[in-house]
Amino acid sequence: MLEAQMEVTVDELKGLVSQRAIDGETMILNMGPQHPSTHGVLRLLLELDGETVVSCVPDIGFLHTGIEKNMEAKTYEKALVMTDRMDYLNNLGNNLCYCLAIETLVELDVPPRAQMVRVLLTELTRIASHLVWLGTHALDLAAMSVFLYTWREREILLDIFELCSGQRMMTSYFRPGGLWRDLPSGFEEAVQQFIDLFPARIEEYENLLTENPLYIDRTKGIGVISSEQALGIGLTGPNLRATGLPFDLRKTRPYSGYEQFDFEVPTASNGDTYDRYVVRMEEMRQSLRIVQQALVQLPEGPFRSDNRKFVPPPRSELGHSMEAVIHHFKLWTEGFSAPKGAVYIPVESPRGVLGCYLVGDGGPMPQRVHFRTPSFANLQALPMLAKGHLVADLVAIISSLDPILGDVDR
Amino acid sequence: MGIESKLGNLGIVTTSLEKAVGWSRTRAMWPLLSGLACCAIEMMAAQAPDYDLSRFGMELMRASPRQSDLLIVAGRVSRKMAPVLRRLYDQMPEPKWVIAMGDCCSCGGIFNNYAIVPGVDEVMPVDVYIAGCPPRPEGLIHGILTLHDKVMAEKLA
Amino acid sequence: MLDSFEFRDQFTVVLQPDAIVDACKFLRQRDFDLLIALTTADHWPEEPRFEIVYQLYSTQADVLLGLSVFLDGEEPAIPSIDAIYPNANWHEREVFDMFGIDFTGSSDLRRIIMPHDWEGHPLRKDYPLGYEEVQFTFNFDEIDRRKKYAKD
Q1: Residue A253 near residue A216, CB atoms below 8 Å
Q2: Does B136 contact A168 at a Cβ distance shorter than 8 Å?
Q3: Whether residue B116 has pLDDT greater than 80
Q4: Number of folded domains in chain B?
Q5: Are A63 and B78 a contacting pair at CB < 8 A?
Q6: B39 falls within a domain
Q7: What does the pLDDT read at residue A1?
Q8: N or C: which end of chain B has fewer CB within 10 A?
Q9: Which residues does chain C have within 8 Å of residue A362's beta carbon, measured at their own beta carbons?
Q10: Do C113 and A409 touch (CB under 8 A)?
Q11: Which residue from A215, A216, A220, A203 is spatially nearest to A272, judged by alpha carbons?
């Protein structure tokens, strides 16, 4: 296992790179798994003609965790914990996708308060994810101050997540049927504080980057793709919206109460790196709008379904109700069972369409869980986007696609 | 390292030299930029202004293993990645230290399956283990300070 | 077409393996422009063992349609659709890697997630999970002796 298997023979390369490389005319460069600009452990085999990229072959799998197989060995609710770790910047979004799949499969109701809190926290996660994207994207283009500023905002959001669930990142706050616990006191003030200060901060980032001639030179016209090509190659999310197609699952196929909110889907027309930046900046503003509306409209009520076959009873009930003890016992030892059947639930993650294909077989453990992750599909477009550009542009293109390798490899 | 270890224990000369060497090693330890998964995000958060790592001498993370002396393995180590990490470790010049940050590289974490190496100490010797999934940036700082204590206490002869 | 059913408001059509290419061509012309998922479920030990599921989505009309193909466990093979939907290529490579299903006519079928010389197909039900015994305090020393730590 430890012998380095990194040497690639010429035969293996034959199908991957052009004949010019095998003849020695162009150079094959390994942009290895450890590199300051690949966002995670992504390995690229570049065929370079001088400094220009002739072709680019991604080699993924360095972060493969076997999450899908591992989830088949755990009960439904225990497997939820693993979904946080897939796309590790969109933890609550992954939880939401998986919870919606379970709830559809077992036909479990979710109270309106839980739905609205889910939307609120998912949009905050979207803002947090875009902040990390902005910071690392600017860092790749050597605009280091933006990196330091965005992490400052992200700390405020992580404090809010910690207030709810005790954990900064891997919260597992959404459970089948609703939320894990009700919102703590101090939550609304914290979110309101964030809503008050964030618009000025977005202005700050825009002042630094949007009209900056250095930034424009490095991103305009780089990595252009048209809508038809993008849909054909499976590109979704802000990458697709930057080509002009206003496709957002929150609008076309609303879930968890998104139809109650008033927000716009930003698009741009050129499909280059600059447009992807513009779309994501505007998405942060729209997400903030949703958070504002959700905070104002938050209804009172239960935070989790009271279907005791799937949701454990509160501890106070265990003292005086035998039925509650039986439900608690069944859920804690064996877990709830799902019927035979399969569902596919797509949601909109900050990177694109995140889908959960859940197959139940009548038992307490899922028969098969598959996540159609956006970064896996988006990364497939990289060879098409990178052709003909310089290596420095390749760095900008990778960071504008926003791949998260935990999402790609699962 | 050189003539000092060959001379053996010279009493107060050696102890002062040990203190000086340990002090200088800890005050400017450069980590290698080797974030793998979620723990890497917390490592970046530790580098960010709120929990500043540069006050411990780690102003920047070097991208090249030849220029770094600390390998913070942050994230889960898959079987495909293990030879790569070993190669990075071998490319680092002495003296070098390894911090296993997070549960996945300390012991396999929540994953117990065919794809994850249960603990990066099967691949390279580890000096400090930091628990947490992911550990808070303060946890990483505590681990780094523990490493500093360990390095200060290292003997030459 | 063999069968069609609806489960939890989601429509699925069951097809024969060789009909999949024509079905995808037909649906592509009918505005199903995004192949949103391609995955497999392993129903071992029931036969037919592998169920390959395609989810096609129409962005204009918001219609999600599932196509399901059942394959036997011995030498499973199915024609590839990456000429019609280019993004099927990586999904098919992942299914090949994890389940060992051969996509005939695919432009590029290599292992994508596991190391290129890995043996076996991990997500099959008869492939072991690779579970390692957990080290508690009562069996700490015993496992400590067995576990291979790296020497420098």
Answers
A1: no
A2: yes
A3: yes
A4: 1
A5: yes
A6: yes
A7: 35
A8: N
A9: none
A10: yes
A11: A220
The answer to whether the CB atoms of C132 and B108 lie below 8 A apart is: yes
In chain A, which residues have their Cβ closer than 8 Å to the Cβ of B112? 70
Q: Do C129 and A60 touch (CB under 8 A)?
A: no
Going from the N-terminus, what domains does chain C have, and what CATH number goes with each? 3-126 (3.30.460.80)
Q: With contacts defined as CB-CB under 8 Å, which chain B residues touch C126?
A: none
Distance from CA of C87 to the nearest CA of A (A): 4
Q: What is the pTM of this model?
A: 0.91
Rounded to a whole number of angstroms, the distance from the CA of C148 to the nearest CA of chain B is 6
- Decide if C45 touches A, using CB distance below 8 A: no
Is A66–B114 a contact, with Cβ atoms under 8 angstroms apart?
Answer: yes
Provide the pairing of β-strand B70-74 with B31-32. parallel
CATH class of A67-306+337-409: mainly alpha
Output the domain CATH number for residue B115: 3.40.50.12280
Cβ neighbours of C120 in A, within 8 Å: none
The ipTM, to two decimals, is: 0.88
- Provide the CA C7 distance to its chain's centre, in angstroms: 21
Q: Is the pLDDT of residue C88 over 80?
A: yes
Query: Among residues C19, C69, C18, which one has the least CA distance to residue C41?
Result: C69
Task: Report the distance separating Cα C135 and Cα B106, nearest Å.
Answer: 12
Q: Which residues of C touch B125 (CB under 8 A)?
A: 149-152
Q: Residue B3 domain-assigned?
A: no
Question: B109 is in which domain, residue-wise?
Answer: 26-152
Res B3: pLDDT: 66
- Closest residue in C to B90 (Cα) is C152
Beta-sheet strand order (sheet of C63-71) = C3-7, C10-15, C63-71, C50-58, C34-42
Q: Domain locations in chain A?
A: 10-59, 67-306+337-409
Residue from C9, C14, C39 whose CB has the most chain A CBs within 10 Å, to mutate = C39
Q: What is the pLDDT of residues B41-77, one digit of tens each?
A: 888 888 888 888 888 888 877 778 888 889 999 888 8
pLDDT score at A3 = 39
Give φ, ψ of A5 to 5 degrees: -105, 45
Residues 117-146 of C with CB under 8 A from A: 117, 122-123, 127, 129-131
Give the list of residues 6+ apart from residue B81 with CB closer than 8 angstroms, or none.
A33, A41, A62, A63, B36
Interface residue C130 vs chain B (CB under 8 A): yes
Which residues, including other chains, have CB under 8 Å from residue A101's CB and lie 6 or more apart?
A343, A344, A345, A356, A357, A358
Compute the nearest-CA separation of A340 from chain C (Å): 10
Tell me which of A151 and C144 has the higher pLDDT. Answer: A151
Per-block mean pLDDT, blocks of 10 residues, chain A (410 long): 45 61 76 77 85 86 88 88 88 92 89 91 93 90 86 90 89 89 90 92 89 87 86 88 89 88 88 90 92 90 85 83 87 86 90 90 89 90 87 88 86
Q: What is the mean pLDDT of residues B97-126?
A: 87
Longest dimension (CA), chain B: 53
Using a pLDDT cut of 90, give the percent of chain B over it: 8
Q: Are A397 and A223 a contacting pair, CB within 8 Å? A: yes
